[in-house]
Design goal:
This protein is mainly alpha-helical. Helices cover about 60% and strands about 5% of the residues.
Length: about 1000
């Protein structure tokens, strides 16, 4: 039977054993080449036969080996006539190297006397024993760490290049032990939920050891837990066929039982095997915000809610929903009750602000992703859809006692997927609306405080001495606040911060009915009156900053962006912002970043509408847009030296930031992504649409990053629609190119083509060079993907001509690299290599790191098809490193996929399968179904070549389903791969 020497588990390169040692300490290794060290000095070990003697003595672990035993170890049953003399010669040479006290002669034989820690094998044995104890005690994390440490001691094949039958036997024994350790570590990986990460390693191992059923079993479990049931079943079918063909036997009963459990969709199989104490222990999230130290009153509510939570353990999930106007203290009460109930929920407490009072409430699927991570779920194991995430969330909570605090909910529909749904868990919900349509919920309507509670809260903040001296004035204050907790807290905090004020001064200020809270009013008006109290105490410059900053839509704002919006230098802007933080009207989200509470933002905007002229409001947002555009254009220029965007973009009156290098520029871009995309979406006037579109153009990298792709596309659609509505053909053409880019990333090529075609017509009508160049470039890419090669060649030749006419050398390089791919698809490999190299030469001359990586990607494809596989690998590895460094997840995944193709062409199917699995993981949620189909096709080919045809067919069928749904040209090719299994 032939043996596929595919890749084994990659073990870190071995160094001299790391342990405290003097310069004379001897150490030895046999888990790799046989070596000896004295201190940090590598000693000469002599000829292979001399190393064989050293290995034989080391493996005796201090016991004496007789001359006859050593002769048999060297030569077996047919030793030479001078065997004994030869042994003595080797022993003499070793003694000179190691010393008289180390290699000793006794009883007609030899022994090596060292401490137990001197040999890597004994160290490995001791660590493995510790790992077994840790696992038996339930400490899986420690067991995994120890086994990884053991495996890290290997440096390739044990006893490498050591001759003799004894060495052969020991080498086989040690390799078997190494595989057993690897199986144990992989088993632990599955037990702690790292199944998705284990698939690629197990795929490689099953290829290298096709008859090892335990590895197949682990692969089936890993695939099943990753949601790939069909592939898991295909692994069993491949195993049964392979065992029958090679050995004439059936799979062992455990494997057959596993197949049946997968067929039944056994829920227990989806979880780690039961053990006395899971290790590592499930994460116990403790996400509750801090409770306020001066919590006051609400005794009846605390008792009522606390009682329901205390009895949650033995009942169906308890849900309590608190409702009331803004500022009534819903969050404060819920957090206080949740902290008191913590002993009843030992497995953790989850918290989220659902932002229900704002314009954009939190998406349930985003919240579920955060909750699952907090509960210990790996990113790779979190599904994409809302329903799948909700199901996994409920499964993860099953058997746990967890409290979930859902703060500031928009409505019942938002929170239903976030409810635990299992006995022992409970949910507390706060909202401005009553959750009458939330089945089974215990509804609590929270009203304002009683006069006694309100005065008590006011006293705790201001101080008993000041309030006691003016009790009547204090009662007037809390009455003017409508007994609303938030209003009382704000008023008391202002008074506490101003030692020169008396309570009567504050009461007199609140006596004005226009500034006083009215208990009969409800909703935002009451909250607005509360904030008016703090707003009225601001200096004029602070008040204007408060009003204008509230106009920005982003989740937060940086100091630099705020300075632009306020038209202040950064130091002056920081003084204003920190003053607002001190008044509690603005929060400091992080150093240099600021945000509003959602209700405060609404109030600030109301103030701006009341106190600022429309032109002033428009100018503030215009300066913010200028800042983002100028800064983003600078980032774009650092990434793409020589690009003509700087010459063709809309001018800005406000300058942006500058950066020392591309990494700091990228950091800014991704940190500001949500805020600058919000600024684009907020654009509404004809005068700003061109700058907003150019901002999208300058931040194209966000579309390819994966993290912001959907938000980017949504903003591009809004700008296209706005440009159409305002009749701005130039802005519309550019918006369509940004939209084309987003849809290319998502794999929606038909939509991308329609957008690029219209952009071409608009660019021609207004003579705009940017879309005139990039539209045919994008159309050429689309034609390449859809196998319309002649058409694609025409588009790209037009793009090259247009780029050259505009003097856009980076654009020319891009089109040359894309034309290289067209030539490659048409079978012109020599010209494909030449074109890609031309593009790279331009990129390198200009100092383009990221786009140069795109050129190397194209060259790698051409070199692969021309058979220069080593050169292709070098180019693709260089590209991959840049893509990772630049956070371009789409291209990181595609470069990994192309490396899999190279491995397949090089006859390394096991490595190809591993890289294909890695590509699938990287491209999850980005790149679209067409690219996923391409990766699945290559994965299937690799699996087929390593003896897993059943699993290969599962991949091909999934790819075929994708291609048929898209109407892709690849349909027939995949059908041919499936011919043996298709009917008729």
């Amino acid at each position: 039977m032939g043996r596929d020497d595919g890749p084994r588990v990659r073990i870190p390169e071995q160094r001299a054993p790391e342990q405290p040692a003097t310069a004379d300490t001897l150490r030895f290794t046999v888990l790799g080449p046989v070596r000896a060290w004295r201190g940090s000095e590598l000693l000469p070990s002599g000829s292979p036969q001399q190393r064989a003697l050293l290995a034989a003595l080391l493996l005796r672990e201090g016991r004496t080996a007789t001359a006859n035993e050593l002769i048999a170890a060297f030569w077996g049953e047919d030793p030479p006539s001078q065997a004994l003399a030869t042994i003595r010669t080797y022993a003499s040479r070793l003694r000179k190297t190691l010393g008289q006290d180390t290699l000793v002669s006794e009883s007609g034989g030899y022994a090596i006397r060292t401490g137990r820690g001197a040999l890597d094998l004994t160290l490995a044995q001791d660590l493995a024993a510790e790992a077994e104890k840790a696992r038996a005690s339930g400490d899986r994390g420690q067991a995994r760490a120890l086994i990884n440490k053991v495996l890290g001691l290997w440096d390739g094949e044990a006893l490498a290049s050591v001759p003799g039958p004894y060495a052969d036997n020991q080498r086989t024994r040690l390799e078997e032990w190494r595989l057993q350790l690897t199986e144990t570590r992989l088993d632990l990986d599955l037990e702690v939920g790292c199944h998705a990460e284990a698939v690629s390693e197990l795929t490689a191992l099953t290829a290298a050891h096709p008859l090892r059923e335990r590895l197949r079993e682990l692969l089936m479990v890993a695939l099943y837990r990753s949601g790939r049931q069909a592939e898991a079943l295909a692994v069993y079918a491949d195993t049964r066929r392979h065992l029958a063909e090679e050995l004439g036997v059936d799979p062992r009963p455990e494997l057959a039982q596993l197949q049946q459990r997968i067929l039944r969709a056994d829920e227990e199989l989806a979880r780690p095997a039961d053990e006395p104490a899971p290790a590592p222990a499930p994460l116990r999230p403790a996400q509750l915000p801090a409770t306020v130290p001066d919590f006051t009153g609400r005794a009846a509510f605390v008792s009522e809610l606390g009682g329901r939570l205390a009895t949650a353990e033995g009942s169906v999930m308890a849900v309590s929903a608190l409702a009331g106007i803004g500022g009534v203290g819903k969050t404060t009460l819920a957090v206080h009750v949740a902290h008191q109930a913590r002993p009843h929920f030992p497995d953790g407490q989850l918290y989220v602000d659902l932002q229900g009072a704002g314009a954009r409430a939190a998406e349930p699927e985003t919240v579920l992703g955060s909750f699952l991570r907090a509960l210990g779920t790996a990113d790779s194991a979190i599904p994409d859809t809302l329903d799948e995430r909700a199901a996994l969330y409920r499964s993860t909570l099953d058997g746990r006692r967890v409290l979930v605090l859902l703060d500031n909910a928009h409505d019942a529909a938002q929170i239903r997927p976030l409810l635990p749904g299992t006995p022992g868990c409970a949910a507390l919900v706060t909202s401005r609306v009553r959750m009458v349509d939330l089945a089974g919920a215990h509804l609590v309507d929270l009203d304002v405080m009683s006069p006694e509670e309100a005065l008590q809260l006011f006293t705790r903040i201001v101080g008993a001495e000041r309030v006691g001296a003016e009790r009547e004035a204090a009662l007037d204050v809390v009455a003017a606040c409508g007994f609303l907790p938030l209003a009382i807290r704000i008023a008391a905090s202002r008074l506490a911060a101003r030692r020169t004020w008396t309570v009567s001064v504050l009461a007199a200020k609140l006596a004005d009915e226009r500034r006083r809270l009215d208990e009969l009013q409800a909703g935002d008006l009451a909250v607005k009156a509360t904030f008016e109290l703090g707003y009225g105490q601001l200096e004029p410059a602070q008040a204007r900053a408060f009003r204008l900053l509230g106009l920005a839509d982003g989740p937060d704002i940086s100091l630099a962006a705020a300075a632009a919006l306020l038209d202040r230098d950064p130091h002056a802007a920081e003084d204003l912002l920190e003053a607002l933080v001190d008044t509690s009207l603005v929060e400091s989200a992080a150093p240099g970043r600021y945000r509003y509470h959602d209700l405060v933002r609404l109030y600030a905007r109301a103030c701006a509408e009341r106190d600022e002229e429309p032109a002033a409001r428009e100018s503030a947002l215009s300066r913010l847009l200028d800042f983002y555009l100028a800064t983003a254009a600078g980032v774009y220029a650092l990434e793409r030296p020589g690009d003509r965007l700087a010459d063709h973009r809309e001018p800005t009156q406000y300058s942006g930031l500058t950066f020392a290098d591309r990494h700091s520029a990228q950091d800014w871009l991704y940190a500001e992504a949500n805020s600058l995309l919000a600024c684009v979406r907020q654009t509404s006037g004809a005068g700003a649409v061109r700058r907003a579109v150019d901002l999208l153009w300058a931040t194209k990298d966000l579309a390819e990053s994966g993290a912001n792709s959907k938000q980017y596309e949504a903003a591009a659609i809004m700008m296209r629609d706005l440009a159409q509505a305002t009749g701005d053909a130039r802005a519309e053409g550019r918006a369509l190119i940004t939209l084309t880019n987003a849809r290319l990333v998502a794999g929606r090529f038909d939509q991308a083509e329609r957008d690029a075609q219209r952009a071409t017509r608009l660019a021609r009508a207004v003579n705009d060079p940017l879309p005139s160049c990039w539209a045919p470039n994008d159309l050429g890419i689309i034609a390449l993907y859809q196998n319309r090669h002649a058409e694609g060649e025409s588009y790209l030749e037009q793009a090259i001509a247009n780029f050259r006419a505009d003097g856009n050398r980076p654009g020319e390089a891009s089109a040359l690299c894309n034309l290289s791919r067209i030539h490659l698809a048409m079978g012109n490999t020599a010209s494909a290599v030449a074109l890609a190299q031309q593009g790279i030469d331009i990129y390198d001359e200009l100092g383009h790191a990221l786009r140069g990586a795109n050129g190397r990607y194209a060259l790698g494809l051409a070199l692969t098809q021309s058979g220069r596989l080593a050169d292709a690998t070098d180019q693709l590895h260089d590209a991959l490193a840049v893509f990772r460094d630049s956070r371009q997840r789409l291209w990181e995944g595609m470069a990994t996929f192309r490396l899999a193709e190279v491995d397949l062409a090089a006859g390394l199917p096991a490595q190809a399968a591993t890289k294909s699995e890695q590509a699938l993981a990287i491209l999850r949620g980005i790149g679209g179904e067409w690219r996923r189909g391409n990766v699945l096709t290559v994965l299937g080919r690799a699996l087929n070549e390593i003896g897993q045809p059943g699993r290969a067919r599962v991949c091909w069928r999934e790819a075929l389903d994708i291609y048929e749904a898209l109407g892709s040209a690849e349909i027939e090719g995949v059908r041919q791969l499936l011919v043996p299994t298709l009917p008729g």
